[in-house]
Amino acid sequence: VPINRAKFMITELTRGGRFKIRWRPADDLDFTLAGYRILQRGSLAFVEPNVRPAPLLGASTSPTPPHKSSNNIEPNSNTVNTTIYATGLYSADWFDTKLLVADQDQVAYQNIYDFDGGQDNIAIFNGPNEPSRLKTAELQFLSNDRGLTPGWLKWIGGLYYLNQEAGFDPFFATVGDVGLIPGADLFPILSDLGSDAGNGPVNLGAFGVLETNSYSGFAQGTVSFADWLGFTLGVRYQEEDRFLVKQTTFAEVLGTGELETFTYDQPKVKQDNLSTRATVELRPLDDTLVYLTYARGFKSGSYNIVTLYTVPEYVQPEEVNSYEVGLKATPFEGLTFNTALFYNDIKDLQETKLSLLSGGAISAENAGGARTKGVEFDAVWLPFTQWNPGLVLTGGATYIDAIYTDYQGASGF
Q1: In 3D, which of 291, 286, 156, 276 has the Cα closest to residue 231?
Q2: Residue 178 and residue 190: Cα distance in Å, rounded?
């Protein structure tokens, strides 16, 4: 799809292919092998006007008319995604066993965009190699209708493994003219390079590759005490370690070959977590479900893998305690109605920011706490189920009240 924006002709191109094979050698065995490969090239998402530049750039960028995008370089983006995954199911008389494995290799390369969003030669970001390799395996044990457990008990349990290596290998922020940037002395690297950095251009670069190993065990069961009453309890235990495979920062004055390198040695981070879930289900009528749910969620802590002048910062894990009460009902034929009240209490909320000082990459920080609460509903109505069942009316609404309860030293945008 060619799009003429500013002075560049932008083309978005996607090519891909996929395959899927299923094999059933016996009634109780089922295997599936599948995969795909997708190549994407373009730059549409990278052509954006910097309509609200931060103070670091605001005094030096030239204003542009509303609804106009301007760049002094041609933006570019390329990705290749290759994924293979397989499942195997063995249906025994006592319970089912399922194995799921996947291998994903995604590489983004030559990702270039103009950070200042204008014709001024201030800052250009270039990611020549951004790999992300992910391997997962999951073993599940599931109850079935023929199993040893009674019909009033449904359950699932299993093990999960994840290995990922991802990051920037490397990443560049090219400063076209350091003299144009107010507050350029914020970069200790530039002052260390001497007067040659005064007029630029200068390459600020970083290697930041993070590896993750995660191991989990989980189980969940649902007990139906009666046709109108059910109870679900789930638990998941997780152990995880994360460490920076590469963590080097450097600066180079283009044309002089001068290079300054800083290597950090951040420790491996180990963390574990126990997450739980409990739900009570009531069915006072045949077509009505009332439920009450509590769940504890967990998002792992991690390192900010790109930083141009400071030690890579560790971001604490995020924890959420969630409460919800809801109703799902079909009061009469043709109408389905769902509504819920929810409340989430969040500790160490992981917020993201985009900053020149982090190489223009997305980095994260912790807000001490946050709270969200609200109500939502949706409905589906077939007004003429007999005369015109193809006519369907849908509607829904959500109201959310969200606040930070603690956010000391918030960076903002």
Answers
A1: 291
A2: 9
Tokens describing residue 257: 């070959």
Buried b (16+ CB within 10 A) or exposed e, 168-178: bbbbbbbbbbb
List the single range of 84-98, 138-152, 396-410 with lowest mean pLDDT.
138-152
Measured between alpha carbons, how far is 9 from 110 in angstroms, rounded to an integer? 17
Q: What is the DSSP string of 96-135?
A: EEEEEEEEEEEEEEEEEEESS-SSS--EEEEES-EEEEEE
Q: Please give the structure tokens belonging to residue 387.
A: 């005369």
Average of per-residue pLDDT across 193-217: 77
The number of residues making up the chain comes to 413
Rounded distance between C-alpha atoms, residue 166 and residue 264, angstroms:
18
Residues 40 and 51 sit within 8 Å (Cβ to Cβ): no
Residue 63 CB partners (closer than 8 Å, separation 6+): none
Q: Which residue has the tokens 């069961």?
A: 221
CA 52 from chain centre, in angstroms, equals 25
User: Could you give the CA distance from residue 220 to residue 233 in angstroms, rounded to a whole number?
Assistant: 6
| pLDDT of amino acid 114 | 74
Spatial contact of 133 and 164, defined as CB atoms under 8 Å apart: yes
- Confidence band, pLDDT 50/70/90 cuts, at residue 27: very high
**pTM of the entire structure?**
0.82
Helix and strand counts by DSSP (H, E) for the chain: 2, 20
Q: Mean of the per-residue pLDDT values for the chain?
A: 84
Cβ proximity of 229 and 242 under 8 Å: no
| pLDDT (0 to 100) of residue 220 | 98
